Amino acid sequence: MICPRCGLDNVPGIDQCASCQLDLAPLDQPVPRDRVQSDLTERPVRALDPRPPVTLPADAPLRQAVRVMLDQGVGAVLVVDDAGRLAGIFSERDLLQRVPDAEAAAGTVPVARYMTPHPETVRPDDTLAVALHKMDVGGYRHVPLVKDGQPVGVLSVRDMLRHITQLCKKCGGAP
């Protein structure tokens, strides 16, 4: 990137001009190249009308968390503290990778023991690109939406794929 202050041709992606130390980060924003990229960088997460959160208290037994996930047809439940603030997320992946067989069979251990604490979140006004980036980098299939620390929804990879597919159909398959 060429520094607007001193004219130095800096290495692409550098955050600060190597000559005059100007902060280049705000000047080096990606530019959408097609309608899909434009939509993802401009549309807020709330526009997808994300599913309301399915929540459980941290002391809920594992058995209850699994039952709720099955009954509600969701891949994750949000774990909240006594004030209703997000404390963690418990997903199918947590069940498969973290819960030993004996404890899964008994199901009496609190879900908080196996949840992912302090999960990555998005706000309803964040763009779809922000949410998609967090999901991609973290390998998450579900990201809680929070407003003032309170869960207000859950965004899933399926929601994102459905939106992008519909967007591509509207574009006639062309970007």
What do you see in this structure?
The protein has 175 residues and is of the alpha+beta class. The protein has a single domain, classed as CBS-domain (Roll). It is 33% helix and 17% strand. The protein is built from six helices and six strands; from the N terminus they run H-E-H-E-E-H-H-E-H-E-E-H. It has helices spanning 35-42, 62-72, 92-98, 101-106, 128-138, 157-170; strands at 55-57, 76-80, 86-91, 116-117, 142-147, 150-156. The strands form two sheets. The protein has a four-stranded mixed sheet. The chain has a two-stranded antiparallel sheet with strand order 5-6. It is elongated and about 65 Å long. The protein starts with 34 loop residues before the first helix and ends in a 5-residue tail after the last helix. The mean pLDDT is 91.
Summarize the entry for a quick read:
The protein is built from 6 helices and 6 strands, in the order αβαββααβαββα. With 175 residues, the protein is an alpha+beta fold.
Topology:
Elements: H1 35-42, E1 55-57, H2 62-72, E2 76-80, E3 86-91, H3 92-98, H4 101-106, E4 116-117, H5 128-138, E5 142-147, E6 150-156, H6 157-170
Parallel strand pairs: 1-2
Antiparallel strand pairs: 2-3, 3-4, 5-6
